[in-house]
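Sanity check

After download, print the first record. It should look like this:
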Amino acid sequence: MMDHNYTVTIIICILSMLSLAIDVGKNTILNKSDIKWFRISFILAATGAACEYLGVLFDKTGCAPQKIHWFVTYIEFSISPFLGVVLARSCGMKRTIKPMCIFMAVNVILQTISLGNGKIFSIDETSHFMRGNEYWLYVFFCGASFTYIVFVFILIGIRTKLRNSFTLFLIASIMITGQVANIIDGSINSGYLSICVTAVLLYIFIQNMFRHIMMETINIEKDISNHDSLTKVLSRISYDNKIKDLDKKIREDPVCVRFAICECDLNNLKIVNDTFGHDKGDQYIINCCKSICDIFKHSPVYRIGGDEFVAILQSDDYDNLDKIKQDFNDFAVAEMKAEGTLFEKRSFAAGFAVYDNNRDSCFNDVMKRADVEMYHNKQMLKNL
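Expected structure tokens:
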């Protein structure tokens, strides 16, 4: 008499695998190759589960001819060792897949030979399954397959920097528990149940892993795009985004907006490049940028061009604007009069402007005044 709970469980497993095999390519971040291998995994798991169930059904009821029972068991025993390998390939393992597939093909050859001599398994005249003297060969190949997938789990854990090692451990434990129980006692039909559950959880895990890697990559690229590669201050992209943000605040509530601008333009960069070389020119830019950042300790500094920087004054820098302007002027004059080559000096002109809600309708209005003041400051420094 068949166990109805087992029947329902296997039906659910088969339907789940077929459903995933159909849906695996939809709304996924996996590449086409991984999708294909997951689809193969689900189809093999569904086929193996169906064969296992039919084998149990035939064994308990004797309702099928001996040859059909033999064929169904042969398919199940041939598929089982391949499942761990196919799941490993679905997880991104590539280098060792071919030798593992060749190794598992040996099992298929042995199963085929066993059809004639019954050394691994046999089906008697009453259509009942019997383990042969060499049944351990099948167990060996299954063990090798599941050892391999556990090894892949470990590699995935290392790849994800052990952030999800406990989840991987639980997934591996599900497969190992189901397989070991089935091997110890053939009446415990937990083999394909554990495989199907593992396949589903692994599919979810791999998707989440790739999604996490993708988000990390996006955040890194976003951080790179928001910062200037040479000076490490904020980039032109970040500057443009800040302008949009300030313009939006000005439109929504112009009275509550408070900010000032300092536009800086490096002096003598072309001469430094032509005289000392572009490597020295880059170092000159870095040195000047550091001095600008030292003055604006509480405000973001943006590199908006080759020799142009903008600081948007906020908080303490905004409240101490007069002192900062004086510090800037004193520093610029001291550098112009200091001894040494142009490369050793840090010379830049600066123009300041404060947002005034009575006269400024956008960021650019403030920037225009800062640009005019910077131009006058540059002329003054040249006269020195």
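If your output differs, re-run the checksum step. Summary of this record's structure: The longest strand covers residues 260-266.
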